[in-house]
Structure formats: C-alpha cells, structure tokens
C-alpha cells in the first residue's frame, strides 16, 4: 500500500533527519563542514528524484520522487518556518557585549558591504545580459547575504580566534537583515514594473530597518518582562522565547511593513543581552541548549531541502550562464575586498574601529559563503507568478550556481587558509598561561590521585606508575613555561582582573539561583560584572576600575525616583529604589569577601605575589568606596540593614540545604520520593520570603534633625513639620549639588558625608550638621563656589521656598545659620560613622568617581 499525503511528507522529513544525523560523523571524519555535505546530499536526492520522475523506464517510484521534489512547496517554508528560528538563534548565540567593541567593523561588513556588493554585482552583470538594471540589482541582493553556518563550523572545529568567529557571525546576522530588506524592495519593483528612485529606495530601507529594530527591541523586553511577571516554570518561560521570533517576524513583515528579519534579530539580541540576568541560570542554560537543538534541525533541513531544489533551478542551464556566474563571483569578491582592505583601514585610522589584522581580513574575504537563504530567495523569485520566465531562469540559475561554487570552492579550502595563517593558535597571553595552568593543575591532580589511591587501597606499584607519569607531564610543562618572562606585569595584572571579574560573575550566577533576591538588583550586578570583564580586556585596571565605580553610582532609576520624591513628595518609588540599592550593596559586600579569599587561594599561586598585591590594592580601593556607601545607609537604617542581612543569610542557608539533599540523592542515601517530599518542604519555607521587607524611608528623621546645631531650638511641632517637608537626598562622590554664581534653589542639611567648595584658593569642607546654601538663600545672593560631594552622603533637601517659610516662622534659625562657622559639625561624634578616609583620599575617590580615563590613570598609577 502506497503512503501519500501528510503521512508521506512526515515520513520523508523523518528520513531526512536520519540522514542529517548520519552526516555529522562523516563530515567530522572527512574534515569538511556539515553544510557542504548536506548540500551535496540534497543535490543528490533532488537530482535522483528528478531523474526518476522524468525517466520512462519505470513509474514505480514516482510517488516517492514527487514527495521529495515537492516537499519544499514554495519559499514560504524557508522564509516563514525556518528563517525566524535561524535568525533568532544566531542573535541569541552572539556575545553582544564583546561584539559591541567591534560594532563599527560589523556594521561596515554587514550593512555597507551589502550596499556595495549588491550594487557591484548588479552593475557588473548588467552589460552582459538583456535584463533590466533592477533585475540585476535584485540578483545582487540575493547573493549578497553570507551564510555563517559553514564558516562558524570550520572555525569551531579548528579552534580559530573567538574574535574572528564573532566578526563573521555578527556580519552574517545583520547581513541577512539588510540583504532581505533590499531584496523585498527590488522584488516589488520588478513585479510592478515600477521605477526605483534611489532616494525613495534608501528612505524605504531606512524606515523598514529602523522601525523593525525598534519593534524587535521592544518585543524582546516585553517578553523578558512577561517572564519575570508570570514567574512561571522553566517550560513556560522557554515557550515565551519560542513564540517571540515568530510574533516579531510576522507582525513586522505582514502588519507593519517593516523587515521581519531585522525585528527577529533585534529581539534575539535583546534576549541575549538581558536574558542571563533575567532568567535563572538553569533556565538560561536549558534555553540555549533547546535553541541549539532547534537550529540544528532547522538549519540541516533547510540545507537539504534547499539543495534538493538545485536540479530544478539549474534546469536549462547554458554555457553563457557560467560566464554570468563567474562575473557575479568576481564582482562579489572585488566588492568584499574593497570593504575589507579599503574602507576598514580608514575607519581604523579615524579611531572608529579596532584594528583588524590582515590574516583576519583575508579569511573573512574568502569566507563569504552563500547558503540556504540565498536559494530560498531565488526560489521566491522563480515561483512568483508576476515574474517572467526569462527573469526566473536568470535569477534561479545564477544564484544557484553562485551558492554551489562558494560552498564547494571557498568552503572546502577555508580550513586550510585558517591553518596557513595560524589563526587557530592561542594568543601570546593565553599561550603563556597555558603551560602555567597545566603545571599547577597537574600538581593538584597528582596530590588528589595519591590521596584517592590511599583511600581506596590501591597497590603502591600502580600508584607509583600513575604518579610518575603525572610528574613527567608536570616537568615538561614547567620546562616549557614562559609565563614569568613572556608576560609583563601590566599584562598579568590585566589577566588577574579579568579572572577576578569572571569569578565575581560566577558567584553572582550562583547567587542568582536563590529565590527571593530582587531580579533588578541581580540584573544590575551581572551587567556591571560583565562591564568589568570588558573594561579589563580593553583598558586593563583602568577599565576595570571605571566599570566598578559605576556600580556604586546610583542608577538612572534611583535618580529619577529621588527627583520625583523631591518634586512631588512621592515616597514609594524612592523607597523601592532604596531597598534595591541596599540589597545591591549588601550582595556586593558578600561577593567582595568571597573574592578576596579566592585571590589568596587560587590567583596568587598562579600569577605571583607581586601581581596579587597590585590587584588586591585595586580591589581594596573599591572596597573602601563600597564600605563608605554601605555604612552611610546603615547609619540611618540600621534596623533594616540587620533584617536584610538576616534575610540574605537565611536564603543562602535554604539554598545550601537544597544542595545537601541533592547530594544525598546522587549518593543514593535517599530515594526520589523522599527527596521530592523534602524539597517541597524547603520550597514552602522559601515561599515565605516572597513577601518583601518593610522599609520606612523617613524613619528617625526627626531625631536626626534635632541634632543640627542651627535647628536645636525648634519646638517638636516644627521638627515634625520639617521632617515631613524635607526630601531625602543620597549623594555620591563627585556629584555637583550647587553651582557657582547661581542662586541656590535647594538648601541641603548634611546628615552624613562630606561636601566641599573651593573659594579663592581656599577649600571649605561641610560635614554632618552643616546647612549648605542657607546663608545664600537668606541673603538672596548667588553661591561663591560650586559645591560637590566628596563621599557618599545622606542629605536632607529643602526647597528655597520651604526654607524661607521655615525661617519666617522661626527667626531663630536665621540667627543660628548666620552664626555657624563655614564647616559645621554635629556635636555627637558617634553620629558620623562613615569611614574617615582623609581629605586627600576622599578627593582622589571623588576624581575617580567623576573623572576621565586620564584621571583614573593618575589616581591608580604605581
């Protein structure tokens, strides 16, 4: 009985998946990219099916052959079913923060290169054909988009430079988006026989690209917000990410008239940036694995199914078509070479792009492979009823031949080009570190092996044999070790800071597994940890310090809440912002303590005492600022600080408890049923922490105001009124509070911290108890100097009108303010418990907090 209909289609796809699985080990053994073998198998299957349909010898296999040939149906299968998956996963897999440093290079190779390539190919083909320029340009857009799958596979197999892989993948992602957007415009012009104006086409492209970019980012952020809002299971959270690319693609492509590919890519990049700090580590790991599996299925099927169309697209090919293919190839290589060897160096000279070595350029130039998307776009033209047969033949043949040659020539030889340029070798730093790590690691392995053998009672002869083998390997690595001579102290410090920041990120990811911690806090901490890694990579310890001090500065959300609190007397937003900042500082303090132990235990043996000492000094400076910020807040909210510390410790204890029961299950000490019952009990106790702690923003304010010398004589009713009127302002080092030659609109009461003004070669420091700006408001005159904060501080802010009203009701305040010395200090020395760093050190920290890179270099120079 013959199988037909949907059953035949599903059976064919299942068989193709079996073929795809078999191709993997074959490709690995032949050292060929999987996509090349997939394309070869697809062409073979398509050709065999086409022969069986056309042969008059037998019709027994016609149904099976027809199913194989017709299974792609039309281009919608590729562009609607597979393309969102491929584009979204490509964006999801990119390390956006590291790619950001090469953004100019990627944009040049993607957007600008597409413009140059499709124009060059179109104008090169135009004199050799009887096709219109619009058709030639449309073909140029079809073959302008590169396919990274084969190239990335080669780079991964031979361990090519990660930066080279990043550049190729980033180029291909945006390249597809730009090429398909241009193709859509030109296909519409071809089918409607309308003339394409350059300015109109450019405007349409920009609107489509920018609009889709905005929609994709918004949809990505909304999806992540829904994940946090619903707080559902892993399966539910991953399901939302599966729906995202299709919603973004279809809404933009069919409803808004924007580029669906650009929207999908933007959504994927957004999830890639914010996903690790929004999703739990376990969910994020499962999400990445699931999408890798989906893209393996989709990508493999696309290559096989698209390649099966090749015999159909090449049907009726002539010798002149090969000439046109050669013209298109030469034009594409010339355009790509112009970008890489002509325009890219100009960007480097202008300081807009990081230098790209010539071996990288040659590899990228030769690695511009085309693949399934090009075939799908060609198919969209050939099956379009509004396209003439001549145009369909022209596009189908040239595009298909172009793809085959790039795969079979460039794809096969690319591996040897990478090996020739030695791009698979480690960088000097990694190479020097390689032997150092192996020597230390093998020493640990040897000691643990000897101890394990003793515990298990293994014979001494066997132990000696294994240990002697490890000793020989250790001796070889120590002999080859050039770590101390190959790297300068500066390079080793940079390496140590990258390691420290990476370890901090690892600790954060482990803490992120603890339910009950604030997601915005964890997002901010993870982002700043990654910024410290990137900063150390780019600018050494100066970049690390610059990124680390940004963490201690109030976020935009905090500043906005503080402004709303001051302007509109709305406390709730600042209350929540304060709670998050308190939690952030607490967690950072815990991590800093763990990081110090990590440095002593692991980094000092590997990098040496001198490097560890320098890095410890950098981290200690950072810790001083952290302590100052945290102690300022503890000073006023000691009860909340203690409650928060207790909450964090109990959450950590619950996490440790869960891990202990997991270990018992792994060791078969308890069964699965008992394990689940115990974990349910732990989960019940953990759910009690879903309720947030109570926080009183203005707690103890009246008592604080009572200690100001200028306000000591106020009655209780006036103190209460002032406490309700004053706004709370948390200052940070380097913040400008009042500007010179301007009448102050705000009067600040310094509760904790230090402010400074510089007047005529004379520094005035305001400490706790000072009323800053009060004299100027009373005299209605401008400030003689700019007032800045030297440290983290707790201030009470009164508007000019409120301060005047207070003085009018209680004239004694005016007399007290005018009688105060320029730098007043509270009489109770226990009130100001912020660490006294000394004036010069506070000024240095203020410069670090608000200065440029040159200030940082001066402050942290040895």
Automatic annotation (TrEMBL):
<keyword id="KW-0739">Sodium transport</keyword>
<feature type="transmembrane region" description="Helical">
    <location>
        <begin position="201"/>
        <end position="219"/>
    </location>
</feature>
<keyword id="KW-0472">Membrane</keyword>
<dbReference type="GO" id="GO:0015385">
    <property type="term" value="F:sodium:proton antiporter activity"/>
</dbReference>
<feature type="transmembrane region" description="Helical">
    <location>
        <begin position="35"/>
        <end position="57"/>
    </location>
</feature>
<feature type="transmembrane region" description="Helical">
    <location>
        <begin position="394"/>
        <end position="418"/>
    </location>
</feature>
<dbReference type="Pfam" id="PF00999">
    <property type="entry name" value="Na_H_Exchanger"/>
</dbReference>
<keyword id="KW-0812">Transmembrane</keyword>
<keyword id="KW-0915">Sodium</keyword>
<feature type="transmembrane region" description="Helical">
    <location>
        <begin position="106"/>
        <end position="128"/>
    </location>
</feature>
<feature type="transmembrane region" description="Helical">
    <location>
        <begin position="77"/>
        <end position="94"/>
    </location>
</feature>
<keyword id="KW-1003">Cell membrane</keyword>
<dbReference type="InterPro" id="IPR000595">
    <property type="entry name" value="cNMP-bd_dom"/>
</dbReference>
<dbReference type="GO" id="GO:0005886">
    <property type="term" value="C:plasma membrane"/>
</dbReference>
<feature type="transmembrane region" description="Helical">
    <location>
        <begin position="6"/>
        <end position="23"/>
    </location>
</feature>
<feature type="domain" description="Cyclic nucleotide-binding">
    <location>
        <begin position="710"/>
        <end position="815"/>
    </location>
</feature>
<feature type="transmembrane region" description="Helical">
    <location>
        <begin position="225"/>
        <end position="248"/>
    </location>
</feature>
<dbReference type="Pfam" id="PF00027">
    <property type="entry name" value="cNMP_binding"/>
</dbReference>
<keyword id="KW-1133">Transmembrane helix</keyword>
<keyword id="KW-0813">Transport</keyword>
<dbReference type="InterPro" id="IPR014710">
    <property type="entry name" value="RmlC-like_jellyroll"/>
</dbReference>
<dbReference type="GO" id="GO:0015386">
    <property type="term" value="F:potassium:proton antiporter activity"/>
</dbReference>
<dbReference type="InterPro" id="IPR006153">
    <property type="entry name" value="Cation/H_exchanger_TM"/>
</dbReference>
<protein>
    <submittedName>
        <fullName>CPA1 family monovalent cation:H+ antiporter</fullName>
    </submittedName>
</protein>
<dbReference type="GO" id="GO:0098719">
    <property type="term" value="P:sodium ion import across plasma membrane"/>
</dbReference>
<keyword id="KW-0406">Ion transport</keyword>
<dbReference type="GO" id="GO:0051453">
    <property type="term" value="P:regulation of intracellular pH"/>
</dbReference>
<feature type="transmembrane region" description="Helical">
    <location>
        <begin position="322"/>
        <end position="344"/>
    </location>
</feature>
<feature type="transmembrane region" description="Helical">
    <location>
        <begin position="255"/>
        <end position="274"/>
    </location>
</feature>
<feature type="transmembrane region" description="Helical">
    <location>
        <begin position="364"/>
        <end position="382"/>
    </location>
</feature>
<dbReference type="InterPro" id="IPR018422">
    <property type="entry name" value="Cation/H_exchanger_CPA1"/>
</dbReference>
<feature type="transmembrane region" description="Helical">
    <location>
        <begin position="294"/>
        <end position="315"/>
    </location>
</feature>
<dbReference type="InterPro" id="IPR018490">
    <property type="entry name" value="cNMP-bd_dom_sf"/>
</dbReference>
